[in-house]
Each structure stands twice: as structure tokens, then as C-alpha cells.
Amino acid sequence: MRPVVTVTLNAAVDLTVGVDGFRPGAVNRAVSVVSNAGGKGVNVAGCAADWGAAVTATGLIGRGNDGIFAGFFAAKGIADRFVRIAGDTRTNVKIADLCSGETTDLNMPGPAADAEALAEVAATALAAATPGAPVALAGSLPAGLAPDSWARLARTLGAAGARVVVDTSGPALAAVLAAAPGDLPYAVKPNRHELEEWAGRPIADRDGLVEAAAGLVRRGIGLVVVSLGADGALFVRAGAVIAARLPAVRAESTVGAGDAMVAGLVTAIAEDLDPEATARRAVAFAAAKLGRIGPHLPAPDVVRALADAAEITRLAG
Ligand SMILES: Nc1ncnc2c1ncn2[C@@H]1O[C@H](COP(=O)(O)OP(=O)(O)OP(=O)(O)O)[C@@H](O)[C@H]1O
Ligand SMILES: O=P(O)(O)OC[C@@]1(O)O[C@H](CO)[C@@H](O)[C@@H]1O
Q1: Between the chain's N and C termini, which has fewer beta carbons within 10 Å?
Q2: Which GO terms describe its molecular function (predicted)?
């Protein structure tokens, strides 16, 4: 298996607060509180490491509270190449309603970064990346960085031969998708809402989602994965369109299911899996993560059994 690199420019400490029946506007009493290292690329790193990949994680974290990240990377055997900046990494509050199973996210802006810090991260990622191996660029951008920061990083890493997977949203995603054909990433994983936001219109049904994703593939993206929550995901590439899902489960926390899916994708890339095996791997990682709070997978055998059980529909190819 080739090594995996992840980049997180806006990491987060996730504070998950369990509430029996969350009521906005009322006094809610927490029945559980869990804190874990998070942010999309950190979550990808955690799940890929649990699978057994050799993972290097870089990005930006605040020097003030980096202990929780250092402890997490050490426990998972992840090479910690994060650039430390002034201040504290943001704390994002996740209110988990234990009755409905729904989670409400309160995501903070996080400390501002600058071009110098970004250049240091880019150099670190470039040094860790190897030709043909996957690099995941994931999450939002902190204040102070230009909206095309992921797009430029994707271009630099792609030019060095890395297979870049991007999971972001809003203007940062729009910049990535607006790149010239030769500068586009190898893969992107928007959820349905992010794809609709990029398209600037609601997309009514599965055919519409496949068509929007296929348009991106025609422009030069190798693989577009559209995640659909409990409905699974669409895997769209030239000559193969696959829908994959596992039965909906009651989640301990849905936070990071998309990141686990990206981890499944990057390990599939690292192992050169075929399109169907890639789809099975990705939905299996996502479903496997749902049983725990934080970026953790169960043992590989459990994940393999889920991959075998995934329902696969070939829509084309
Ligand atoms: N309740 C569920 N039951 C089974 N699988 C689920 C459920 N929720 C999510 N998944 C799996 O997780 C994948 C990713 O979920 P989703 O589409 O919500 O991603 P996301 O919006 O990027 O999530 P996040 O940003 O919280 O990580 C789905 O494609 C699906 O495979
Ligand atoms: O604010 P962003 O960067 O879009 O998302 C941050 C975040 O919600 O993403 C992860 C779940 O996907 C969490 O660990 C983290 O709090």
C-alpha cells in the first residue's frame, strides 16, 4: 500500500455534547461530553491509520492547545508534520441529540493564517507526497488565506505526480473545480448540498446528480464521489458510474462520516483498487465510523465484512 498524506488547514477540537432531546432556545442539560482531535483531514488521517496505512498529516494547528493533536497522532502512529501557528485551534461544538440521532454543528472560524504558513504546509506536503500516492486536502480554509488556496495546493501536488483528493465546500470548492483541465485534482467528494451549491441550483434526483458529476469528469476530474448521507454515495468516472450503499444505521455520531469515506477512497487509491472495490471500500469506511464518536474505525475484518455487504448498482459502464 502506498503511503497517505493528509492536509488540514482549519483543524478543530470537536466537543461532542450528548443531549436527550435537544431543544433550541431552551436550557439543555448535557448527559455526555467527549472531546477529540478533528477537522476533516485529521479525521481522514485517523481512519486511514486505523486501516493500517502509513500516514503523514500536515496542515495548521494552534500552538496553544496542540497537546490533544500530538496525543492523537502518537496514539495512531501518524507522522505529525503540522505547522504550529500562534493561538488556539478552534473548538467546534457538536450537539448530538440522543433521541433523534441528529447532530447540530456549531463550527467556529478558527485562528487566522497567512501566506507564509501556507507555503510551509505546501513544502511539507510536497516533501511527504510520492508519485502515484494519494494526498487528501480536506476542510474549510481559515481566515487570511485566499479562496484558491486548495486549488493552488492541488495543482502543485498534482504536478509532482500525487493523486490529489479534495473535500471542501463553498468558494474553496468552486476555485478547485474552476482550475484548468491539467490542474484539476484526481478526485473530489462533495456531498449533495455542496454539489448543488457549486451548481447554483437544486438537483432533483439521482440522474441530475450523476449528470452534474459527469460534467466534472468530462472536464478532467478522474473520480467524483457524491455522498448522500444514509442513501450512500455515487461514484462517477469516465466509463463507470456506480451507486453504493449500506443499510442505514442509527449513528453514535454522523460527524466525520464523509471524512471516513474520503479515508476509504485514499486507501483504495493507495492500493489501486478497481472502481467497484473502491465504492465498496468507501461506503464501508463511512458506515464503520458511525459506531463511534471521533475518527476511529473498528478492526479491518469488520470493515471488510461491511465492504462485502455493500449494495452496488452499476448505473453505467
Ligand atoms: N445514517 C447512515 N447510515 C449509513 N450510512 C451513512 C449514514 N450517514 C452517512 N452514511 C455514510 O456516510 C457517507 C458520508 O455521509 P454524508 O453524505 O453525510 O457526508 P458529509 O456530508 O461529507 O459528512 P461530514 O461532513 O459530517 O463528514 C454517506 O455517503 C454514507 O455512505
Ligand atoms: O469547518 P469545516 O472545516 O468545514 O468542518 C470542520 C468539521 O465539522 O469537519 C469535521 C467533520 O467532517 C469535524 O471534525 C470538524 O469539526
Answers
A1: C
A2: 1-phosphofructokinase activity; ATP binding
